[in-house]
Design brief:
- This protein is about 70% helix and about 0% strand.
- It is mainly α.
- The longest helix has about 35 residues.
- The protein starts with a helix and ends with a helix.
């Protein structure tokens, strides 16, 4: 997935180049030769006479003859340099790779056993104290000023927000420092980038970056084998599933909030509506697919297609963010609001099905 993501992100910069200095795929060499041939035949690719670099704007299309690019020794050597670079990257990646080293396994096993032992011993000591207290009839568990009482109404009203915060914490828990640093880097790049870089690179990457966090929605209970604890909770849809979706929406907002600020500053209200729809639609899709498939791979594949056709290279039917230049495309996000509601309903049905299967 990362291969296709990187390919989609860097392809505009490659195709739009007039030279092939830093081209990984060799496309710029072909495009540069095409451009030179067009100019030699009296066509101007910068004036919309051809759709290789920009839309024709409704003007009459023109054809030209091209015999293909020439591949000389220098061009071939440039291509081979990328092969050498790929080999060097693989060698560097092999340095910390020790998955098949039995010595490393033994060290990790000893560390895990020691950690497990440290965690078990205090529990055993506490259990011994509890048993001793039970044997002593004169031992009181609570002091006079420590009697248990019912929670106040204000305390119960705050449980929903507490659950949302807890769900969000569980979603981002375990992410490396590099993940947070990269998220902050995208936000900074979004502020200082040009309009072209912002539209072609920063915005699509900002929407792609949290995909592996969203892919855990709806399936962590099965994955971590906590479904026997979570599913029997009363009013599970309202108390756990809905806050889980809200936490995913909060993640979408935090990951792309700078994109929204820039759209607001530019007065792009239609695109801002599309951004809002994306913040609720993507978590709903992840939640529904996670509940019904008990995994995140399906969402990752489906979302990558939607991201490519709806964010990176917008088409009308998948234009859930209103980024397509077609007339009326900015009204398409309104349709995806209804789709979001349907996805949430399907997620609720799937979760109820899981509860019934568990209680049988």
């Amino acid at each position: 997935m990362w291969f296709f993501s990187i390919a989609f992100l860097i392809s505009p910069a490659i195709v739009g180049q007039k030279t092939s200095t830093l081209d990984i795929y060799g496309m710029s060499h072909v495009m540069a030769d095409l451009r030179a041939e067009m100019i030699s035949q009296g066509l101007d690719p910068d004036q919309g006479d051809t759709d290789l670099y920009q839309p024709t704007g409704g003007r009459e299309t023109k054809r030209f003859s091209w015999d293909g690019a020439s591949w000389d020794v220098v061009t071939i050597l440039k291509r081979l340099l990328w092969v050498v670079l790929a080999g060097l990257i693989a060698l560097v990646a092999a340095i910390p790779f020790d998955r098949f080293d039995p010595a490393t396994w033994e060290v990790e096993v000893r560390k895990k056993k020691k950690k497990r032992k440290d965690n078990v011993e205090p529990v055993a000591q506490n259990n011994e104290g509890l048993i001793a207290s039970l044997d002593d009839p004169e031992q009181e568990f609570l002091a006079e000023g420590e009697r248990l009482s019912a929670l106040s109404k204000g305390r119960s009203h705050s449980r929903l927000w507490t659950t949302i915060v807890s769900e969000f914490y569980l979603m981002v828990k375990g992410r490396s420092l590099w993940w947070y640093a990269s998220t902050a880097g995208l936000a900074i790049a979004c502020i200082f980038s040009t309009d072209k870089i912002f539209n072609l690179l920063i915005t699509p990457l900002s929407w792609l970056w949290p995909v592996f966090v969203w892919s855990g929605m709806g399936n962590q209970e099965i994955k971590n084998r906590t479904n026997h604890i979570v599913f029997p909770v009363a009013h599970l849809i309202k108390r756990q599933l809905l806050p889980h979706w809200v936490a995913g929406c909060i993640l979408a907002v935090l990951a792309t909030v700078v994109v929204a600020l820039r759209l607001t500053m530019g007065g792009e209200w239609g695109l801002l509506l599309g951004w809002s729809v994306g913040c609720i639609f993507i978590p709903a899709l992840a939640l529904m697919l996670g509940v019904w498939t008990n995994g995140g791979r399906t969402f990752e594949m489906v979302y990558f297609v939607l991201w490519a056709l709806g964010v990176k290279y917008p088409t009308v039917i998948f234009n859930f963010m209103g980024r397509s230049p077609e007339p009326g495309a900015q009204l398409v996000p309104l349709f995806y609001i209804a789709v979001t509601v349907i996805l949430l309903m399907l997620a609720a049905v799937g979760r109820k099905k899981q509860i019934v299967s568990l209680l049988r």
